[in-house]
Design goal:
Length: about 100
């Protein structure tokens, strides 16, 4: 299982308003990309990070290599709007509602 942090990039020397404007332009394509991840059964949860720092995704049932490739297809990543950070968790215990994550 993976937690992906999509932090707004500062590499392009864009100020916050420019980054926000660029994100709005690519949001429909980013949302389509997210939906594809849900449709493929990989994404479990996604949403915005507090204080408009970017977004986050929880992914399951995918290898790190395949996840890296999938992230490279995100328009927010290809347009350098966000920089992905991947944290891998190997679950050893879960609430019964999330027991499927243990397999």
């Amino acid at each position: 299982m993976f937690i992906i942090k999509l932090a707004f990039s500062h590499e392009q020397n864009l100020d916050h308003s420019e980054t926000e404007s660029k994100a709005k332009r690519f949001m429909p394509a980013h949302l389509d990309w997210l939906q594809q991840g849900y449709d493929n059964g990989v994404f479990l949860v996604s949403g915005s990070l507090h204080s408009e720092l970017g977004g986050g995704i929880i992914a399951h049932g995918i290898t790190r290599e395949a996840l890296n490739k999938l992230l490279q297809d995100d328009p927010f990543v290809t347009e350098q709007i966000v920089t992905p950070e991947i944290i891998e968790i190997v679950p050893s215990k879960a609430d019964e509602r999330l027991a499927f994550l243990l397999y």
